[in-house]
Amino acid sequence: MTSIDSFGTSSKLTVGGQSYLYYRLSAVPGLDQLPISLKYLAESLLRHEDGSTVTADHIQALANWDPTAQPATEIPFHPGRVLMQDFTGVPCLVDLAVMRETMLELGGNTLRINPQIPAEMVIDHSLIIDVAGQPDAMQRNMELEYQRNSERYQFLRWGQVKFDRFKVVPPGTGIVHQVNVEHLARGVMKGLHLAYPDTCVGTDSHTTMAGGLGVLAWGVGGIEAEAAMLGQPVSMLIPQVVGFKLSGTMPPLSTATDLVLTITQMLRTHGVVGKFVEFYGQGAAALPLADRTTIANMAPEYGATCGFFPVDDVTLDYYRLTGRSEDQVALIEAYCKAQGMWLESTPTHGEEPVFSEYLELDLSTVVPSIAGPKRPQDRIELSHAKQQFLQDLQAYLPDQATASAAKTQTSNSQVDGPTPTDLPPGVEVTLAGQPAFELNHGDVCIASITSCTNTSNPSVMLAAGLLAQKAVAKGLTAKPWVKTSMAPGSQAVTSYLEAAGLTQALDALGFNLVGYGCATCIGNSGPLAPELSAAIAQNQLAVTAVLSGNRNFEGRISPDVAMNYLASPPLVVAYALAGTVNFDFSQEPLGIDAKNQPVFLQDIWPSPEEVQNAISQFVTQPMYKTAYASVFMGDDRWYNLEASQTHLYHWDPRSTYVRKPPYFDAISQTPAPIGNIGRARVLALLGDSVTTDHISPAGHIPANSPAGVYLAEQGVEPADFNSYGSRRGNHEVMVRGTFANQRLRNQLVDQTGGFTRDFTQGGIVTSMFDAAQSYSAKKIPLVILAGKEYGTGSSRDWAAKGTALLGVKAVLAQSFERIHRSNLIGMGVLPLQFLAGQDAATLGLDGSEVFSITGLKALNDGVVPKTVPVTATKQGGEKIRFRCAVRIDTPGEAEYYKHGGILHYVLRKMAKYRTVP
Predict the structure, then answer these.
(1) 3-state class of 885 per DSSP?
(2) Last residue of a domain, one of 32, 56, 77
(3) Residues 606, 692 within the same domain
(4) Residue 909 included in any domain
(5) Are residues 610 and 684 in the same domain?
(6) Which residue in 134, 454, 617, 894 is deepest, having the highest Cβ count within 10 Å?
(7) 278 CB contacts (<8 Å, ≥6 apart)?
(8) Which helix (H) or strand (E) holds 680?
(9) Confidence class of residue 645 from pLDDT cuts 50, 70 and 90?
């Protein structure tokens, strides 16, 4: 890349005898005073200044950043690389494959469709825990994974070979974000004698985890990531930056998980959507690197674009520990210090760094906590967990389910009001070869050590192993109804647990290794024992899952489990021993030891000194070097996969995993003019906090769902349905799975799940997919009505793709999560926001109305109206008129919407050129 460098910032940096060109921030007055996270954006602008896409005005706007101003200035950000996981990465590759064909149809050069920047995919989302609690669990789960996913994996092998600058980390290696921080992250990237900071966008919202390493990183939609791969900048407003000061030290019984749940609750309460959060202060500087990445990982849960810790000596030590070369570490140090990106370069003479807003947490106030039963920000102090469970349970009991359907859970760190003490009688269950037991509301049916958030952190993983060791020594066992599992984020984890002599104890409690992948946290917890599943369904039991993950949304973890709780790995083990969340660890014993003495949690909880000694002894550099020595090679199963040999993919019409999508059918060189939306019907009337899991589930495909019926028609047996996530390369499955979550509450109907009313047939209740097909046949467009935080959760492009393919033209919501709003625009769906004080209820909308949305034609002239008129006509002819804000926030987004989507825009732009870049 070549910058016109109108500010004269080009300079030379010499490290270890090697000279690098870099663009010096201090040469532009104002840039050196920015928060460190914004300096990364500034460097990208300097390096890509071309006078058209990136101009001197963009650079000056950042230099003149007003920390208190509301974001209003758009800048184009060019990330240094793109990171993907397979659930979101497969559809990205499908899109690139079909774009190559469409490029041919438009008369362009097909080989232009190639990543222009490094793109790496880690296959980590396809592991399902079919087998658990057994020594051979990983081997058997991997065999099933390859059997189910051979078509997808053959497709990915083709992409690995036929696309430039595209690398794949094969299955069984680790979780994408842990692999990123332990191996893929560069700290500082190198081009042709050029050095520049490591920046990354990813197709998973937890790409933010690398922010703990001083890598500016966040999640984007898959379609936005594809555009970035093809050289397009990410369009964004210059954000506000929240300074989060950490002071004090952590108390002995609290973990990094407790800390991040506390921070998540604080930031959600404060409100940081669309903002950067930069951590600073003596407490931040003293935090171990793994704790920093734990905090950065959960930026999506606290709502920020990213969580960021600048580079310092702790960062460099981690790069060394995980096997980066001394030359690379020296470059990171020299570059960050030269650019004012080093943590010590912030003011140290009593001044606070300049931020938009300030928060502070005294680490000594952090207490053991869990979060749930359905949102990560709903933190519960462990000492209150039993009372809070009993209070929350009332909404899940059969006679309360309908009454509570429209309620939104609020923060529950404090128990309010009286708490019931008695549960209904339990149900007797007998599992094969075991004595009968009683199953009741609140019983833990899944206890899983899983997810990048915590398995990347040796302190909590070793704490779990030490607690297990002490529990086994006391004669404690997990309860028979608990499905226990351990799915670490990298092979280094099992290496240090084995070296510390803790694997045997974990295995004894059923926490056998089940594989290396996201597993439970993504919804791949696998089936419960049939006897358990039947008892839960027949008796409408609100059983629970406890996992060391970052997501606990309704319907995500298991179709059998109603209430989900996030907890640290040692607490996951403790809850497996207790067998229920209806438990007070301070008052109730986990069991009785050989001396007939009660064993309490405090009796087996490892001390900080024990944990630190284990880290010092057993977490070593050779473990990381061994784990990543052949990270892109894979085993014989991967290497021997057959893959297409041509640069155009040969679509198999019989495939139920990878199908050619219809996004570019009949595309023309120029987009059709934007028109108003008329005669539209409501597909769904939804409440607050509708997640991308509600919109596009990742887990189990029920046999009686539209997707299940489709697969059965294709000759697929229910045992081989796999998951929605694994079939994201097949639009036929995914459009049928849109709004199909069994926990979705559409207020147009009196039942949960993917149902709605078809007003073309007298308002009969039918599936979302069948109703959408009926509307499509009559050329009737659709809209969605929703509440606050619409699209919260994972950066799931299929939540937007499926919405578009169902025929939805606009979503009217009280507020949107950042990534999903962007994804909707990327698929040509208009995001509209109710004005302050208004929503469907206050306007008197019940979803039976016919909608018209006008004022959109101005977009053809590049003008984005602030608001547009909406008219809802009731069945009797009464008209409700109101205005909605148009949430097309940047000129770049307006261009994407005008073209019908971001990929349509990119394809038309690239088709104008005949040569390969």
Answers:
(1) strand
(2) 77
(3) no
(4) no
(5) no
(6) 454
(7) 35, 36, 37, 241, 242, 243, 244, 308, 309, 310, 353, 355
(8) strand 677-685
(9) confident
d(CA 361, CA 377): 16
Cα dihedral sign, 303-213-622-640:
positive
Instruction: Tell me the two tokens of residue 491.
Output: 């092979």
Which stretch of DSSP H or E encloses residue 146?
helix 137-162
Tell me, what DSSP letter sits at residue 391? H
Give the closest residue to 662 by CA, choosing from 36, 85, 102, 90: 102
- Report the CATH number that the domain containing residue 791 is assigned in CATH: 3.20.19.10
Q: Is 846 helix (H, G, I), strand (E, B) or coil?
A: coil
**DSSP category for residue 182:** I
pLDDT digits (tens, 9 = 90+) for 836-892: 999 999 999 999 999 999 999 999 988 999 999 999 999 999 999 999 999 998 888
Residues 825 and 753 in one domain: yes
Rounded to two decimals, what is the model's pTM? 0.85
Whether 268 shows a pLDDT value over 60: the answer reads yes
Q: What is the pLDDT of residue 414?
A: 56
The type of residue at 879 is K
Q: Is the same domain home to 175 and 100? A: yes
Helix (H, G, I), strand (E, B) or coil at 12: strand
Question: Alpha helices of 220-298 — where are they, by DSSP H?
Answer: 222-229, 256-270, 282-286, 289-297
Contact 526, 658 (CB under 8 A): no
- Count of Cβ atoms closer than 10 Å to residue 755 Cβ: 20
Q: Does residue 116 share a domain with residue 70? A: no
Other Cβ atoms within 10 Å of 226 Cβ, number:
29
Find, among 637, 659, 681, the residue nearest to 812 by Cα.
681
Output the six-digit token pair for 215: 């890598």
Report the SS3 class of residue 77. strand
- Residue 707's contacts (CB-CB under 8 Å, 6 or more residues apart) are 701, 724, 727, 733, 734, 736, 737, 740
The yes-or-no verdict on residue 24 having pLDDT over 80 is yes
Residues 417 and 497 in one domain: yes
Confidence grade of residue 402 (pLDDT, cut at 50, 70, 90):
very low
206, 293, 440 from 298: Cα distances, Å: 7, 9, 32
Q: What pLDDT digit, counting tens, does each position of 456-512 carry?
A: 999 999 999 999 999 999 999 999 999 999 999 999 999 999 999 999 999 999 999
Identify the CA nearest to 674 among candidates 906, 900, 887.
900
Given a cut of 80, whether residue 138 has pLDDT beyond it is yes
Could you tell me if 68 and 87 lie in one domain? no
Res 668: pLDDT: 87
**Which pLDDT score is estimated for 413?**
46
Tracing tokens 């010092």 back to the chain, one arrives at 616
C-alpha to C-alpha distance for 113 and 330, rounded to whole angstroms:
36
Write the DSSP assignment of 397-432 as a string of letters: STTTTTTTTT------SS--S-----PPP-EEE--T
In a domain, 908, yes or no: no
Cα torsion angle, 95, 98, 100, 105, sign: negative
Which range is least confidently modeled, 270-279, 765-774, 816-825, 846-855?
A: 816-825
Closest among 437, 522, 535, 443 to 487, alpha carbons compared? 522
Please list the alpha-helical segments (H only) found in 357-451: 385-393
Termini Cα distance of the chain: 12
pLDDT digits (tens, 9 = 90+) for 226-253: 889 988 899 889 999 999 999 999 999 9
Q: Taking the CA atoms of the chain, what radius of gyration do you get in angstroms?
A: 27
Q: The domain spanning residue 494 has which CATH number?
A: 3.30.499.10
Q: Which secondary structure element, helix H or strand E, spans residue 785, and what is its range?
A: strand 782-785
The number of domains in the chain is 4
109 and 73, same domain (yes or no): no
Q: What is the pLDDT of residue 713?
A: 96
* Structural domain for 391, as ranges: 374-398+412-626
The answer to whether residue 466 is domain-embedded is: yes
- Specify which residues 599 forms β-bridges with: 591
**Nearby residues of 737 by Cβ (< 8 Å), 6 or more positions away:** 696, 697, 701, 705, 706, 707, 724, 802
707: left (phi over 0), alpha (psi -120 to 50) or beta: alpha
- For residue 644, what are its two tokens? 């297409």
